[in-house]
Each structure stands twice: as structure tokens, then as C-alpha cells.
Write a structure and sequence with these properties.
alpha+beta, four-stranded antiparallel β-sheet
Length: 412
């Protein structure tokens, strides 16, 4: 049973979340087994990051190290970055090109690009002595291999044979919103940023799915009218609850609202931009949407902030530490002006971004505060108890959706 100490206080509904879920080693271990090794798809890399045979990148699914490669057949493969011999890392580099095979530095057990064991140093011994027994079969030994799914240039992997195809896993609405950003164009990586967060991974995913906080926490949003809750927009939550979309669009015909002043919330400031071109955007999708945040359970985020595009990969590092990897991208069809615009607007995001900086801090504030209150519960009632899609963004429906999917996979 999960967290037996607190079994007498179960979560009665999706509007209450116990703080112990961010704190106990038992919960963290169970997540590794049931979520990260279970029936979920996990983002691994952009397909354009592995353009040629022999290209590779290393990453993680939960705690498990992974190698992602492209072979001569043009296909993408992924396998556990753990030698079948004594458990050492097979590949120590974060990425590379032209790799013919992967050889463990410890004892030189060697694997091909698909993760098959192909060579063992001194397999037949030396001068007729030692070596592996005759009964040893190399095809019976090797790292675990992942199922691979590619959708609009996004590479996903899973250890599970039970997880449905990626399109079915996401559903039509989430898939179409990914296609909106990536469909029909080839991505180009513009840069990467890695950020270490002082909090449990679930607190960051709550933040991603929380449209309620965005224009309260982020003064930049309201000062420059990038995101106000009174603007056009919506929350979309899939049937499982685990995937979501939040988007907003500038309504040029709407008058400036007074709701933030009524709530006595900071919504304007004396701050101005020395270079207003930072916010000069181009409606490349022809739908007026200036902000779209899309998440896939458990840890993937696709983001459009004006013309700044990025994928985010969240990697748990323990109970109160999480690595967040941002990959900013554009497209091969971008001209110089658009590339410059995307790079300039990348200042909005990342660990020091005008918008995202606060998101790197707020979950840490929660982590620090709840450590002495494992038996208390957070309140997630904004917008009621529903996990349904809504054209009202003053809601925590997507946060409740995350906990719906989480509880289903954890058996809670």
C-alpha cells in the first residue's frame, strides 16, 4: 500500500491532494515502476536532433538512463543506457555523431545502434583459458529496448507493451494541437537550456497545467497584456485527464478590463521595454493565438509564446529536485527575420525568462513549506471539481486532470 502511515486519510476527491505525495521515498519509488516504467509515452528528443545514421543522444525516463540513436535503416531506436554485464553506463556522452557502436568503458562489452550485444572483450579467453562458457548466448543479453513512436518530429519512447499507439494515447484534440505547431514543417534547433528546480517533479507539472496562476504570478503577462484571464482562450483536457492545452488570444476589439484592479492584484507596472521589438509578433498560425501551453502526461510540454517555440523535458532527480531541459526551435522555412524574432522572444522563457523565471521558483516555495505538513491537503477547487474542457481559464480543471491520470496509473 502507498504510504501506509497516512492510509487513514485517503484523497476523497480530485480537489484535494495530500502533501505527503511530494515527500515520501515510497511514493517516488512507486512512480518509477508504475508511471515511468509503466504504460505511458515519454518524450525523448526531436527527430531533427538525430538527422543521420550514427547520431545519438542520451536522456532519461524517470531515473532510467536511455540512449536514443538513428541506424543505417533510417529508423530511430532507444535502449536502456545500462550494460548487461555489470550494470555500468554504456554511453557517457550526452550526444554525438557518426557512432558505429557503443562500448562500455568498464569491460568493453559492445552494442550496436539498436542495442544488440555484438562483442565481448576476451569472450573466448586467452590462450585457451578463461572466457565465457559455451552456453553463453549474446542474443540473450542486452539492455532493455523501448518502443518508439514519432509524431510530427517528436520522438516518444515507452517500456510498456500495453500503452496504446501514440495517436490513441493523446486523442484527436491533443494530436491536432501538436500538429498545429509542428505539422508540415521541419524543425531547426535554436538552442538549449537546462534548469535545476528545487522541487518534486509533480509540483512543476501542476504549475504547467495551472492557467489560474499565470496572470497573477507573472507581472510581465499583464503589464504587456500578453495573457489576462479576461482575454479569449480556453482549457482543453483530454478524457484521461493527463494531457491538456491552455491557450489565449489577443482580442483587439476588447476594452482593457478592470478585473485585476478590482481584485487588488498587480496587473500593471511602471516597467517599460527598452526594446519593444521583443514583443512584435507575427501571426504564423493565422488564429490569433499568442500563447499555447500543451502538456502530455507525465512530463512533456510543448510551448508557443508569441513566436517563441520550445519543447520542455522534465526529469525527476529525487524527491525535491527536478531537471528541466528546454529546447528552443524554429523551422527550415523561417527567413532571417523570423529566426531573429524567435531568438529575441526566447528571452521570455527559460530560467531567467521575463515570464518563466517565476515558474522556476514558485513550486520550490511549495516544496519548502509543505515538508512539515505531510498530513494536510492542498485545495484544488477553482472552477469546481470538474476535469472537463472549458472556455473559462479561471479554473484548475487541468490540474485536477493531472491527478486523475496520476491516481489511475498509481492505483490510488
Amino acid at each position: 500500500m502507498l504510504h501506509e502511515t497516512h492510509a487513514a486519510s485517503p484523497v476523497e476527491s480530485l480537489t484535494r491532494v495530500p502533501y505527503w505525495v511530494f515527500q515520501t521515498a515510497e511514493t517516488y519509488r512507486t512512480e518509477q515502476e508504475r508511471i515511468f516504467q509503466g504504460p505511458s509515452w515519454h518524450y525523448l528528443a526531436l527527430e531533427v536532433e538525430l538527422p543521420e545514421a550514427g547520431d545519438f543522444r542520451t536522456t532519461k525516463i524517470g531515473d532510467t538512463p536511455i540512449v536514443v540513436t538513428r541506424d543505417n535503416d533510417g529508423e530511430i531506436y532507444a535502449f536502456e543506457n545500462r550494460c548487461a554485464h555489470r550494470g555500468a553506463l554504456i554511453c557517457l556522452d550526452t550526444h554525438g555523431k557518426g557512432k558505429k557502436d557503443f562500448s562500455c568503458v568498464y569491460h568493453a562489452w559492445t552494442y550496436d545502434r539498436q542495442g544488440n550485444l555484438r562483442g565481448i572483450a576476451f569472450k573466448d579467453g586467452v590462450k585457451g583459458k578463461g572466457g565465457m562458457p559455451d552456453s553463453f548466448r549474446m542474443e540473450d543479453h542486452g539492455p532493455r529496448k523501448l518502443r518508439i513512436a514519432i509524431l510530427h518530429g517528436l520522438i516518444f519512447g515507452s517500456f510498456s507493451e500495453e500503452v496504446p499507439p501514440i495517436e490513441e494515447y493523446l486523442g484527436d484534440e491533443i494530436s491536432s494541437r501538436i500538429e498545429r505547431v509542428l505539422g508540415g514543417r521541419k524543425a531547426v534547433v535554436l538552442g538549449r537550456v537546462t534548469q535545476v528546480l528545487p522541487n518534486n517533479w509533480k509540483l512543476y507539472m501542476e504549475n504547467v497545467k495551472d492557467s489560474y496562476h499565470a496572470s497573477i504570478l507573472h507581472l510581465f503577462f499583464t503589464t504587456f497584456e500578453l495573457n489576462r484571464l479576461s482575454q479569449k482562450g480556453a482549457i482543453i483536457v483530454d478524457e484521461s485527464g493527463g494531457h491538456h492545452i491552455s491557450y489565449s488570444a489577443i482580442d483587439t476589439s476588447a476594452q482593457k478590463d478592470a478585473e485585476y484592479a478590482k481584485q487588488q492584484l498587480r496587473s500593471e507596472s511602471q516597467y517599460k521595454l527598452a526594446d519593444p521589438s521583443l514583443l512584435q509578433g507575427f501571426d504564423e498560425y493565422h488564429d490569433g493565438v499568442t500563447l499555447q501551453i500543451l502538456s502530455v502526461f507525465p512530463t512533456f510540454v510543448l510551448q508557443q509564446t508569441r513566436n517563441s517555440l520550445a519543447v520542455r523535458r522534465l526529469v525527476p532527480q529525487g524527491l525535491d529536485k527536478t531537471e528541466l531541459v528546454w529546447t528552443c526551435f524554429g523551422f527550415t522555412t523561417d527567413d532571417e527575420d523570423m529566426t531573429e524574432r524567435r531568438l529575441r522572444q526566447a528571452n521570455l522563457i527559460g530560467p531567467a525568462g521575463y515570464i518563466s523565471m517565476e515558474d522556476g521558483a514558485a513550486p520550490g516555495f511549495v516544496q519548502r513549506a509543505v515538508t512539515t505538513a505531510p498530513d494536510l491537503l492542498s485545495v484544488v477547487e477553482m472552477g469546481g471539481a470538474s476535469v472537463a474542457s472549458d472556455d473559462n481559464r479561471v479554473t484548475e480543471a487541468a490540474v485536477r486532470g493531472f491527478w486523475k491520470a496520476y491516481r489511475a496509473q498509481m492505483g490510488m
